[in-house]
From TrEMBL, chain A:
Residues 264-306 form the Non-structural maintenance of chromosomes element 1 RING C4HC3-type domain. One of its GO terms (molecular function) is ubiquitin protein ligase activity. PANTHER family: NON-SMC ELEMENT 1-RELATED, NON-STRUCTURAL MAINTENANCE OF CHROMOSOMES ELEMENT 1 HOMOLOG. This is Non-structural maintenance of chromosomes element 1 homolog. One of its GO terms (biological process) is double-strand break repair via homologous recombination. Residues 52-84 are annotated as: Disordered. It comes from Lates calcarifer (Barramundi). GO terms for cellular component: chromosome, telomeric region; nucleus; Smc5-Smc6 complex. It catalyses: S-ubiquitinyl-[E2 ubiquitin-conjugating enzyme]-L-cysteine + [acceptor protein]-L-lysine = [E2 ubiquitin-conjugating enzyme]-L-cysteine + N(6)-ubiquitinyl-[acceptor protein]-L-lysine. Component of the Smc5-Smc6 complex. The gene is NSMCE1. Belongs to the NSE1 family. Keywords: Chromosome, DNA damage, DNA recombination, DNA repair, Metal-binding, Nucleus, Telomere, Transferase, Ubl conjugation pathway, Zinc, Zinc-finger.
From TrEMBL, chain B:
This is Necdin-like 2. Residues 8-24, 255-268 have a biased composition (Low complexity). It comes from the Eukaryota. PANTHER family: MELANOMA-ASSOCIATED ANTIGEN MAGE ANTIGEN (PTHR11736), NSE3 HOMOLOG, SMC5-SMC6 COMPLEX COMPONENT (PTHR11736:SF14). The lineage of its organism: Eukaryota, Metazoa, Chordata, Craniata, Vertebrata. The gene is ndnl2. InterPro entries: MAGE, MAGE_WH1, MAGE_WH2, MHD_dom. It comes from Lates calcarifer (Barramundi). GO terms for cellular component: nucleus. Residues 1-44, 239-268 are annotated as: Disordered.
Length: 326, 268
């Protein structure tokens, strides 16, 4: 008997994923980024604004006739529900469980979801597939957004929360002083030349905290939590914003750090880890992976804006690895 | 103590409730003053609001459920009304109707009232699990392995077991409920408290036992989320035996429709 049960445990261990799956939590709402509580200005995604104004226009026309307006929106939702099938729902649930998936993974997942529910899968239609999900997600203040990793230049898809409501505030697992440390870390990262903040600088920044001060050990523990929860990355004692954090917080960072924020000259997205043109009259920024791609195969690198010599080391273009993390 | 017992206890002792003024008691008060509005009241309420306002409130309710469901503790209507619905309580049925539709159409989830007396809700996944085929490995919760073993034992033993059997089984699996486990922590607390509050298990005292003894049954959430056929399949693999050889269990596993689509069981 006991050999059977030991066997059972080993079996359980070995087949953990398979066994756990029937009863495992497969979905998670994206917890709003830690910034949400600190948000002073409402950052509303442009698409939300347009739907909002559309609705307002509709109300204006309808006047007090809400019944008419409602039937219009009912019709709209019926149209959209025809597009969204179980393959979309399975894709969304996996995104909710993971938060962020690289492009390769998203493609494989798209194919898997279509095969599972016997729907047609057109390999180059992933973005359309996601648009369909987004059209139904946006009224819930969520969105699957695409962005590039500053580390390896790959594209990622992240499920982000765009709402700043009392409800999302509850999903934040951090106390007020912990959120303040996160904001201080972000200040340091945005203000830095290389998009990094050292653990020493972060520890020192706790001296100026207005909320309850964090001890050294608490700060170290908290930084680990930020890394585990995928808000920060850490490498040799230096912290950077994670890809998911940048994707989710881009509108916030653009609004809050208007004067400091760097924008990549090539891809036009915000940039933290980047190279900067040394011509003082120019000074454009380019993401490291964008540098690699832009200058690939050029014998003498020149700034795409001012045509001055580009003095930095040109990184290699990184090929997508079979299954890279983050 | 089961959650249900504790609740009914607080409900009956309304006097001590007012005196203690604990958070739970206050919320209980909230729910007792909440009466389901009639359809004409809802209609009138809707006419005073813009569709955008109703959509916004529905979105907040959906987010609230998604956030709160992460801990798998049933969501109380009293809390929902108090923290989210607030001044929209006169159109509560309409908002819930829309939330149910969104969970169904967008997320593939089913919003189920698990306890119609105390008005508690859970979310159940409507999509069947596909055996280990997903190219993306989602994070798993190791406690679910523990739960799976316990549910399996209860099911194979005919639906109800004394607690000693569970503890002994776990010991044989090198999980001692008296010791702190590296992955599960306080095993006894996880099994008798966490799983019970999540409604995966029922843990009830057997009457007239001294010292008190308890027995385990499947909780309502387990009925809805866990496929008995899958458990039997696992048992078959474990004992290298045909699942059909457990004829009683096999009949039970295949008489009720598979857990996630068990729409009938969710109505109770």
């Amino acid at each position: 008997m006991s050999s059977v049960t030991i066997h059972c445990f080993e079996f359980l261990k070995k087949y953990r994923c398979l066994l756990y799956s029937p009863i495992d939590c497969k979905y998670r709402v994206p917890s709003a980024a830690p910034h949400v509580d600190l948000l002073q200005v409402a950052v509303i995604h442009p698409t939300l604004q347009t739907t909002g104004s559309l609705k307002r226009a509709e109300e204006g026309r309808g006047g007090g006739n809400s019944r008419k307006a409602r039937s219009v929106s009912d019709e709209l939702s019926r149209d959209m529900s025809q597009q969204m099938g179980d393959s979309h729902r399975r894709f969304l649930q996996t995104m909710m469980a993971n938060g962020i998936v690289d492009e390769q993974g998203a493609r494989a997942l798209y194919q898997h979801c279509c095969e599972t529910h016997s729907t047609q899968c057109t390999p180059d239609k992933l973005d359309d597939f996601i648009d369909t999900i987004n059209s139904r997600l946006q009224p819930m203040f969520m969105q699957i957004r695409k962005g590039m990793s500053e580390d390896n230049g790959q594209q990622y898809y992240a499920l982000v929360n765009m709402a700043e409501t009392n409800v999302t505030r509850m999903s934040s697992d951090y106390a007020d002083n912990e959120l303040e440390l996160f904001r201080k870390t972000m200040d340091l990262i945005v203000g830095s030349e290389n998009g990094k903040a050292s653990s020493t600088d972060i520890l020192n920044s706790t001296d100026t905290m207005t909320a309850k001060k964090l001890k050294k050990s608490e700060t170290e523990h908290l930084l680990n939590r930020f890394v585990n929860d995928k808000w920060l990355n850490e490498k040799r004692g230096e912290y950077t914003l994670s890809t998911r954090c940048i994707i989710e917080m881009e509108p916030y960072i653009r609004a809050m750090y208007q004067d400091q924020v760097k924008v990549c000259h090539i891809c036009r997205n915000i940039a933290f880890q980047c190279q900067i043109c040394e011509n003082p009259a120019c000074g454009i920024k380019i993401h490291n992976p964008c540098v690699a791609r832009y200058f690939k195969g050029r014998s003498e690198p020149r700034c795409p804006a001012c045509d001055d010599f580009w003095p930095h080391e040109i990184p290699e273009v990184r090929r997508p690895q079979s299954r890279s993390r983050r | 103590m089961t959650q249900r017992k504790r609740l009914s206890a607080t409900q009956s002792s309304s006097q001590s409730r007012r005196q203690t003024g604990s958070l739970l008691a206050q919320e209980e008060d909230d729910d007792s003053t909440f009466t389901q509005p009639s359809s004409t009241q809802v209609q009138r309420g809707l006419e005073k609001l813009t569709p955008a306002q109703v959509d916004q409130k529905t979105a907040e309710v959906v987010q609230y459920f998604l956030v709160k469901d992460q801990k798998k503790i049933p969501i109380r209507r009293a809390d929902l009304v108090k923290h989210v619905v607030k001044e929209y309580r006169n159109i509560y049925p309409e908002i819930m109707k829309r939330a149910v539709r969104i969970f169904d159409q967008v997320f593939g989830l089913k919003l189920v009232e698990i306890d119609t007396k105390n008005h508690m809700y859970i979310l159940v996944n409507k999509l069947e699990t596909v055996e280990g085929a997903s190219p993306i490995n989602s994070p798993t919760n190791p406690k679910m392995g523990l739960l799976f073993v316990i549910l399996s034992v209860i099911f194979m033993k005919g639906g109800v077991v004394r607690e000693n059997l569970i503890w002994n089984t776990l010991k044989k699996l090198r999980v001692d409920p008296a010791e702190k486990h590296e992955e599960f922590g306080d095993v006894k607390r996880v099994v008798t408290d966490e799983f019970v509050r999540q409604r995966y298990l029922e843990y009830v005292r057997i009457p007239h036992t001294e010292p008190p003894e308890h027995e385990f049954r499947w909780g309502q959430r387990a009925d809805m989320e866990v496929s008995k056929a899958k458990i039997l399949e696992f048992m078959g693999q474990l004992h290298e035996q045909d699942p059909q050889s457990w004829s009683q269990q096999y009949r039970e596993a295949h008489s009720t429709p598979s857990s996630t689509q068990a729409s009938t069981s969710s109505q109770r």
